[in-house]
Amino acid sequence: MMKESPTPASFAFQNHLIRKVTFSQPLENQEKISIEFEPSGEFNSQNGTYKLILRFFANYGEKNEYSLIDLVSEGDFKFDKSISFEEIPDYFFPNCIAILYPYLRAFITTFTSVANTKALILPTLNLSSLSKPLKENTTVV
To answer: Is 18 buried (19+), middle (13-18) or exposed (0-12) by CB count in 10 A?
Structure first.
């Protein structure tokens, strides 16, 4: 008789929140803006929740010495069953980032467009390269 492999855990997106945003009006109209992401997470194995914390930076200047935006967004996810951190499927990490990113992107576009400055419109991005840093920067509570 063939032994069945365990069913991988599924998850659901619960909520998102912009926790913090710092915006500095550009000194002049800047065309060269660099962006950066810092992902981290908090996993609670007791209740099966995962909080994705996605920090976003936009800088400008010749050496990126001027900060335009520093933003912290959070996304709350819930697994359908109790699992340990080691049992979180690998597909969770890129997918939770892909789910949260459009909310962050829309907020930045709206925020900068009403700030009486040139709107910062982020492109659609493949952020799968953030999966490994997210997993490494996850704390289990």
So the answer is: middle
- The C-alpha atoms of residue 39 and residue 55 are separated, in whole angstroms, by 6
Residues 74, 15: Cα–Cα separation, whole Å: 8
In the numeric block, which tokens belong to residue 107? 């907020």
Whether the CB-CB separation of 39 and 137 falls below 8 Å is answered with yes
Greater pLDDT, 87 or 29? 87
Q: Does the predicted TM-score (pTM) go above 0.85?
A: yes
What percent helix, strand, coil does the chain show, rounded to 5? 25, 40, 40
Amino acid of residue 137 = N
Domains of the chain: residue spans and CATH: 11-140 (3.10.420.10)
Which residues have C-beta within 8 Å of that of residue 38, sequence separation ≥ 6? 54, 55, 57, 133, 137
CB atoms within 10 A of CB 14: 12
Task: Give the per-residue pLDDT at 119.
Answer: 87
Length of the chain: 141
